[in-house]
Amino acid sequence: MDKKDQNAFMSRGCYCSPQPHTRQLDVFRHSCNKLNSFDWLKEIKPPEVATVSDIVEVRFKNSRKDFFRTTPDMDLKTGDIVAVEASPGHDIGIVTLTGEIVRIQMKSKNVDPSSEEIKRVYRKAKVSDIEKWVTAVKQEDSTMFRSREIASSLKLEMKISDVEYQGDRTKAIFYYTADDRVDFRELIRVLADAFGVRIEMRQIGMRQEASRLGGIGSCGRELCCATWLTKFTSVSTNSARTQQLSLNPQKLAGQCSKLKCCINYEDACYQDILKDFPDTETELLTKKGTANFHKMDVLRRMIGYSYKDNPGRVIMIPVERAWEVIELNRKDQKPDDLESYQAEDITASQDSFNAESYELEDSLTRFDNPKPPKKSRKRKKKQKANKKSGPKSNKTE
User: Fold this and answer.
1) Which residues 6+ apart lie within 8 Å of 149 measured at CB?
2) How far is it, in rounded angstroms, from Cα 235 to Cα 11?
3) How big is the CA angle at 57 (ends 162 and 71), to the nearest 5 degrees?
4) CB under 8 Å to 319, separation ≥6 — which residues?
5) Strands 284-285, 290-297: parallel, antiparallel or unpaired by DSSP?
6) If we measure between CA atoms, which residue out of 225, 227, 231, 156 comes closest to residue 189?
7) Terminus-to-terminus CA distance in the chain, angstroms?
8) Cα separations (Å) of 374 from 317, 377, 381, 383?
9) Which of 13, 170, 282, 381 is the most buried (most CB within 10 A)?
10) Quick check: helix, strand or coil at residue 159?
11) Is the distance from CB of 304 to CB of 316 less than 8 angstroms?
């Protein structure tokens, strides 16, 4: 199988292309992605009084999943390829969850099991269904490239990022991104004539596009939105300020050109720690002089101050020591200086600092290993040869 075809089916949870003559072959496999579902109730037997759930979870391409109702005569298992109700016709998907775990999954996604809007599972996929499905999936890449050429010829300010064919190949969904509103009525007519299917256009955001395409982040790992992140919460620059990050758009923006979602991960931790920090506008009064806030190290719980008459020298002290000085100032008392409130490890590291180490750090040739002169190299070779041959025995005449 071609690598492109393999990637197309991997986006649907298959490790290989389904073969029509071996349609009972389990082509589904669990993998590390955001749509992977583990049935942790599989080995737990439900009570005899409990009713068996008649709803299954079915997976389609990329981030599309839905719940479908089955009939009592169907015995579906995880990995079965099924034909489900669609509008119009039918679609082909893979069963990912069955049994009691489906009710818990529906509850977490706020879906009512008694709703009449839940569509039905028609049957297990037949040989003809799988043949049509495989043919449609293999045409998605060529359709996407051709549709981009058509959109460019019509001079539309939009980018078609993905195409998904319905299982019976009667409809194709085109996912696109655009900054402004796009009039694609002419585009739909041209695409319908070119591909002979019903066209549906769906606009997605930059984050959704990055999650569908995937990629490697600045951290060296696969994008969170392409592996496990399913809900996109708003990210603001206030979170970056809270974490003392430099407001550099090139560093804060991800591949979707929006603020990175990982900025929100540690935001709550920083906010909890910052509750113990004093106000940055508070001045510390000492006999040596008045000190103003300069910077802080949130995770190490350190805060830095500098004297007004010497702003270039920053004195880092623990948060608890800063509160001690503030309490003394409230009582109209002043400590001698801030240096006595520094932590021992910081003073030791500052005492060991010297100009020579500073010069070595800034030296461009500090990692160079110059070759020794030729004479010394020859001498070393002779010494190694003598060690291998062993000590010479003394000869007597």
Assistant:
1) none
2) 28
3) 125
4) 276, 277, 278, 301, 302, 303
5) antiparallel
6) 156
7) 83
8) 54, 5, 11, 14
9) 13
10) strand
11) yes
Rounded Cα distance between 244 and 218, Å, is: 19
| Gyration radius of the chain's alpha carbons | 33
DSSP 18-71: PPGGGTTS--B---SSTT----TTTTSPPPTTSPPP-EEEEE-STT-EEEEE--
Cα atoms in the 13 Å half-sphere on the side-chain side of 43: 2
Quick check: helix, strand or coil at residue 277? Answer: coil
Strand-pair category, 119-124 with 65-69: parallel
pLDDT in tens, the chain (397 residues): 555 556 666 677 676 667 665 544 567 766 656 677 778 887 777 777 667 788 999 989 877 889 999 988 888 888 888 999 998 889 999 898 888 889 888 998 889 988 888 999 999 988 888 889 988 988 999 999 999 999 999 999 999 999 999 999 999 999 999 988 888 899 999 999 999 999 999 999 888 888 888 888 888 888 888 888 878 888 988 999 889 888 888 889 998 889 999 999 999 999 999 999 999 899 999 999 999 998 889 988 999 999 998 888 899 999 999 999 999 999 999 998 888 888 665 544 444 444 444 455 555 565 566 655 555 666 666 776 776 665 554 444 4
For residue 78, how many other CB atoms are within 10 A of its CB? 18
Domains and CATH numbers, the chain: 3-125 (no CATH), 139-207 (3.30.300.20), 233-272 (no CATH), 284-358 (no CATH)
Please state, in angstroms and rounded to a whole number, the distance separating the CA atoms of residues 86 and 136: 16
Q: How far apart are CA 82 and CA 110, in angstroms?
A: 24
Q: How far is residue 125's CA from residue 58's CA, in Å, rounded to a whole number?
A: 13
Contact predicate 225/232, CB 8 Å: yes
